[in-house]
């Protein structure tokens, strides 16, 4: 299945040269969302006496949320980091929903949710090493800050934007787990993923990562309904931003609240979506929702 997903990803790119924001925006076009749903539904997740089906949705936050460390953090080059850092470039969320067997397919309960934060980079080769981007011998740049955050989750406050003065969530303390995030390098129409650890190999394709998520072998479990820890609170907060806030009116064709889109309801076209993600001053943060519905007794 992962090869099918990687071929689908490659088909979204018509040339080999893209900027980082553009490469991310091309990844979540309508054709990819529709194709991913088809691939997953032709490769159902197997459990005895349970039938599965998938839906794919895309949401976004119109400004990438930022972390501000509660105390100075030392980067891998020895530099002291005090500036805010963006929390990845996109996120993938798997939700498993058990359905009642009735005409309405009522959701009985959500059994499992897991999230993966992805830090996207351009790479000049296949199978690069994390953090993929350049780290200066001294001083601070974005790659250094991203690695410091995702490789250890130092205590931080969450802000909606670079100029925000009020935290969304204060004093987050998240125990590190390698399943929570990854670095992903784009090279020659393919994304290469690896752990958020200095010099870790990025030798998994994005198709492999998505397949691992659907098999419960990637992404880290979270509880959106009843958050029990700061990881749960972080992911829930980012999802809530998608649901609550209104989309900018000049990006939509019809009035609809929130930023959570069905992949199969044309509320926004590909050109408008790319324009939103490609805003240089405030690039958007896409969230790919993979919804798996489990029906007992099939």
């Amino acid at each position: 299945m992962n090869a099918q997903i990687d071929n689908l990803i490659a088909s979204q790119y018509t040339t080999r040269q893209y900027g980082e924001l553009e490469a991310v925006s091309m990844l979540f076009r309508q054709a990819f969302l529709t194709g991913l749903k088809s691939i997953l539904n032709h490769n159902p997740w197997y459990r005895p006496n349970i039938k599965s089906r998938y839906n794919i949705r895309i949401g976004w936050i119109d400004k990438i949320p930022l972390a501000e460390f509660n105390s100075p953090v030392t980067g891998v080059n020895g530099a002291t980091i005090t500036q805010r850092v963006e929390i990845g470039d996109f996120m993938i969320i798997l939700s498993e929903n058990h359905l009642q067997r009735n005409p309405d397919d009522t959701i009985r309960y959500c059994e499992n949710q897991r999230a993966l934060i992805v830090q996207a980079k351009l790479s000049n080769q296949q199978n690069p090493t994390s953090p993929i981007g350049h780290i200066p011998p001294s001083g601070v740049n974005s790659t250094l800050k991203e690695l410091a955050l995702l490789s250890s989750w130092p205590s931080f406050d969450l802000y909606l934007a670079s100029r925000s003065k009020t935290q969304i969530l204060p004093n987050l303390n998240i125990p590190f787990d390698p399943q929570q995030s990854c670095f992903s390098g784009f090279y020659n129409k393919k994304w290469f993923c690896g752990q958020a650890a200095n010099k870790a190999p990025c030798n998994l394709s994005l198709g492999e990562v998505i397949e691992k998520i659907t098999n419960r072998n990637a992404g880290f479990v979270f509880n959106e309904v009843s958050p029990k820890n700061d990881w749960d609170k972080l992911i829930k907060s980012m999802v809530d931003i998608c649901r609550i806030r209104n989309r900018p009116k000049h990006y939509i064709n019809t009035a609809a609240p929130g930023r959570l889109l069905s992949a199969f309801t044309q509320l926004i076209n590909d050109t408008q979506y790319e324009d939103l993600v490609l805003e240089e001053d405030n690039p958007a943060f896409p969230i790919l929702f993979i919804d798996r519905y489990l029906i007992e007794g099939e």
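The chain has seven helices and 15 strands. The first strand starts at residue 50 and ends at 61.
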